[in-house]
Amino acid sequence: MNRIEKRMQELKERSEKAFITYMTYGLPDTENCMNVFKAKAEAGIDVIELGIPFSDPIADGPVIQDASFRAIQKGATLVKAFDAVGKVREEGAEVPVIFMLYYNTVMHYGVENFVKSCREKGVDGIIIPDLPKEEQETIAKALEGDDRTIMIQLVSPVSGDRIGDIVKDARGFIYCVSAMGVTGLSGAFYRSINDYLQSVKDAADIPVMMGFGIRTAEDVKPMKNIIDGAIVGSHFINLMEESGYDIEVAKEYVETFKKELNQGGREND
Known about the structure:
The protein is an alpha/beta fold. 43% of the residues lie in helices and 13% in strands. The chain is built from eleven helices and nine strands. It has a nine-stranded parallel beta sheet. Helix 8 (163-167) links the parallel strand 6 (153-155) and strand 7. It starts with a helix and ends in an 8-residue tail after the last helix.
């Protein structure tokens, strides 16, 4: 079983919801980036999304755009990100890892080579925000026959009638984009967020996660009866920037959010 799916199953058995955080690879630098990574793992994060810097991150708002630019300036690359994950795996890290990146990066690396490196280095999942389900045939074929790396599907408030097709045969969890826009729009959730999330939940056979615009567990409290977990990106980057990438701050944030997210258990079971 894939690490992501194993973690989701463990959480279900414990009646807990998942907490997932995004971080841009290469900040504040390539070494300290992985120190933050390990700190989050120690604090009990369920899944780590590692963003691979790209020059034109069209799904991302100003925080992650700026983070990508600065990481590239510091020399962050996909090859270095693979090596970094491989190293923490050699050190014994078992936390599920997802690479979030744009398809240009995958094509430049080579789809087959990319999938091969994911499997060899211990990358458990892939999110490609600019590759719709209808255009995933090439990478889906490359992923066939080996559960070590799976594709995570995104749905948005405008997916509408496509939701059923998007979630069909999906693996790991469904990433529900909660806002009509880019990442980092704090609290600006889609006006019919509950109905939208429920429609995804009804269609999916796997956990449903909510992301975009989330800062605290309180932000998702109104949706707690529907979702299976929350994803935080831009706010975590801001938190790290403000604290000088203090690993204790990272640990405290993860521990606090996870505790508050799971207060009262999974109300939708």
